[in-house]
Amino acid sequence: MTTEATTFSRHIRGADAGYKTFTKPNTLQRFRHFIEYSGWDEVIFAQEGWIDKLCIGVIIVASLYFIPPVLVMLFLR
Question: In Å, how far are 5, 17, 36, 51, 61 from 47, measured between CA atoms?
């Protein structure tokens, strides 16, 4: 698949105006190749302990943010 583009200089009728054809890489095929042949899953498994601690931290922060308003509303009733 090709993408066609016309480029112009400051002067439209000048000698710098050109017509170029660029090949468009198939993004889906490139992504599939990356998933199948790279070691992205091994990198994630190597960082598993750090990622687990980060997720627990996010859960704690979200709990501290959302629970107090609910408790205040319960006590005010």
Answer: 44, 52, 20, 6, 21
| 14-43 pLDDT tens trace | 555 555 666 667 888 888 888 899 988 898
User: What are the φ and ψ backbone dihedral angles of 7, each rounded to 5 degrees?
Assistant: -115, 145
Range of the domain at 37: 2-76
The tokens for 39 are: 């070691």
- Write down how long the chain is: 77
Six token digits for residue 27: 């993004």
Predicted pLDDT of residue 7: 56
- d(CA 56, CA 62) in angstroms, rounded, equals 10
Q: Residue 64: what pLDDT?
A: 92
Total count of domains within the chain: 1
